[in-house]
Amino acid sequence: MSELTLPTARQRPFDPPEEVTRLRRQGAMHRMTYADGHLGWLVTGYAAARAVLASPHFSNRPETMHPPLPSRMELVEKGRFKVPPGFFLRMDAPEHTRFRKLLTGQFTVRRMKMLEPRIEEIANACLDAMEAAGGPVDLVEAFALPIPSLVICELLGVPYEDRARFQEDSRILVNLETKADDALDAMGRIWAYLAGLIERKREEPADDLLSGLVESGELDDQDLTGVAMLLLIAGHETTANMLGLGTYALLTNPDQLAAMRDDPSVVDNGVEELLRYLTIIHLGPLRTAVEDVEIEGTTIRAGETVTIHLPAANRDESRFADGERLDVARPVAGHLTFGHGIHQCLGQQLARAEMRIAYPALLRRLPGLRLAVTPEEVPMRSDMSIYGVHRLPVTW
Known about the structure:
The chain is an alpha+beta fold. 49% of the residues lie in helices and 8% in strands.
């Protein structure tokens, strides 16, 4: 079995790197060399990825891991690759369980349904502004980013007028080329801002999620700040990139665009198919074995790090027939874009609600929507840990 470093260069904007696709067709598990020379594993198969994500024999704590890229190895070498208080995404049970249980009730299907009228208002306001301005516009700036940003700000109780502060620092944190000191500085700025906001919530509570967490008294200010940081960054970075990249994919697949625009019965399947086909979490997740464990006939030794390549797993034809093709009409349950197991994305129902509303609203309001540049000129987020488009110039 050959040893490899993590391939990141994409030959086509919507597909995993060709080397990863070749590996997936050869098998599910591949030896991989990490940035510090550690030998671990790259998982490209669906069943193996799901098994690792579900297994209690793997840790999600970053201090146990060997990052696959030199830019992230720098944090380890500085001795600062640690879990911030309250950042439960990178914790293991039972610590993770305590935070997850506290927050699960805030993101139920029922509560997200209650948000839908407000999401529709926000989407229509963005479209009103686009029509008033006239094309061409950058769809990321005008539509894809404002919708989830405003929704998560209102849900958490973060003033939307402060968005420039945290959006720029979020971009620094997810940029794979960011130096460790710059990443830590950006994290420090977001932390200080949210710590001040939580202090204000304690003095003047409002009807929002952060005020409710403050009033519950179950978390101290450090944990509250970490929870707020995680929800704020995840709540706008992920869905914003799905809306931008998904629209780009539809604009370059006119038959799929027409189905999403003209047939309401397709939209739910279409959202799931775009999530599967595009899989914007394109570098990870990572796990480290805490004991020897066998996955798909391969023994992973205690201490070895595993990188799960979700875009490859979501194209595995043993699970998704004709998985290399975008087909918004097909039922596509079980994709791994939101993860699996105890760390499955807490905000997945919110993301689904935003996409189910935003895509049809955009395509029906602007039936002549098209790229304002050639497809080759669209700048891709290959340099970011969350994939997508940096900009999407469109007109109509």
